Automatic annotation (TrEMBL):
Classification via Pfam families: TPR_10
Name this polypeptide is given: MalT-like TPR region domain-containing protein
InterPro entries: TPR-like_helical_dom_sf, TPR_rpt
SMART domains xref list: TPR
Gene3D superfamilies, per the entry: Tetratricopeptide repeat domain
């Protein structure tokens, strides 16, 4: 969930590292701490997206040190937030929570409720991504209350969606679907097409789980159309993958169409550098091939998926699917 915002707003991995390094040298000569902090943070993001998490975290830590010298404390919040997310992606839950809690405290001292709530949302996501959904749900509810208190409807919608996913994963199906539907209503009022598609995708998955395949098909096709309309490649990849699962899940489903959809999703995941998404597509292709008894090719795709997942765990730099 957390990775999608940065992935859609700024493609760090394709940024020119040399240009950023040159800019860093210039701002150091000018003793410009705010620009130095920003550039170090961006360089750290680029390194993380390219799989060099160790060097990325080192640069982000230096960004935090520079940001502590800045009068503008919002710069510190930004750098702390980036560092916390990087620690989380590397498996450093405790370090991530510690850094993000400091970001929340600085935001609170700034009396910026939305900024504080967003830090809490990242803490919740950190707990959830490391398996502690119960704690994550408690924290996301705190973030939701803060967003509602200042009428921040974008934040409210994001928290409702996140809470819904957590509830669903905990087995609280009714509560989870209710939260996601509430997020969908808010996002429709905001005309947030990316957010609407995200909710439709997740509701479609829930409908697949309970066997309502026709309704799921409607939700997922609407989500895919919205993602096409706004050029959201990550959302398209996710919708295509869920549609592929849907056709495979049906007893009389079209296995050929399922394979085509998985392969289209795989192509988009490669463009997005979404390693986990690629692994899920290979697993889906392998399942379909095994079902039609092409066991040799199925084994090849299972091996590809395993290799991708091991690489993601080793590098820590995989961009994860926003809705799981």
């Amino acid at each position: 969930i957390e990775e999608e915002a940065r992935g859609r707003l700024w493609d760090a991995a394709s940024s020119d590292l040399d240009d950023l390094e040159r800019g860093l040298g210039e701002c150091r000569s000018a003793r410009d701490a705010p620009i130095e902090a920003d550039l170090l943070n961006r360089i750290g993001l680029v390194l993380c997206e390219r799989g060099d998490m160790q060097q990325g975290i080192k640069r982000m830590s230096r960004a935090v040190s520079s940001a502590r010298l800045c009068a503008n404390r919002r710069i510190l919040v930004t750098c702390l937030s980036s560092l916390g997310c990087a620690h989380s992606r590397c498996g450093g839950k405790d370090a991530a929570v510690e850094v993000l809690e400091e970001a929340a405290q600085v935001s609170q001292r700034l009396s910026d409720v939305s900024l504080e709530a967003n830090c809490l949302r990242k803490i919740a996501l950190t707990h959830a991504s490391h398996g502690d959904l119960t704690t994550g749900l408690v924290v996301i509810r705190d973030a939701l209350d803060l967003f509602i208190s200042v009428s921040d409807t974008y934040g409210e919608a994001a928290c409702l969606f996140t809470a819904g996913v957590m509830q669903y994963e905990l087995g609280h199906t009714g509560e989870g679907v209710a939260d996601i539907e509430a997020s969908l209503r808010v996002r429709r009022a905001l005309k947030d097409k990316v957010g609407i598609a995200e909710c439709l995708n997740r509701l479609g998955l829930a409908l697949i789980d309970i066997g309502f395949h026709l309704q799921a098909l409607d939700y997922l096709e609407r989500a895919l159309a919205l993602c096409h309309e706004v050029g959201d490649l990550m959302g398209q990849a996710h919708a295509l993958r869920l549609l592929a699962y849907l056709h495979f899940a049906q007893v009389d489903g079209d296995r050929k169409l399922s394979l085509e959809l998985f392969k289209k999703s795989l192509s988009l995941c490669r463009r997005n550098r979404d390693v986990v998404g690629q692994a899920m597509c290979h697993e889906g292709v392998a399942d379909v091939l095994a079902d039609i008894e092409d066991f040799k090719l199925s084994a090849h795709h299972y091996a590809e998926a395993m290799s991708l997942r091991e690489g993601a765990l080793g590098g820590g730099g995989a961009r994860e699917d926003p809705t799981g």
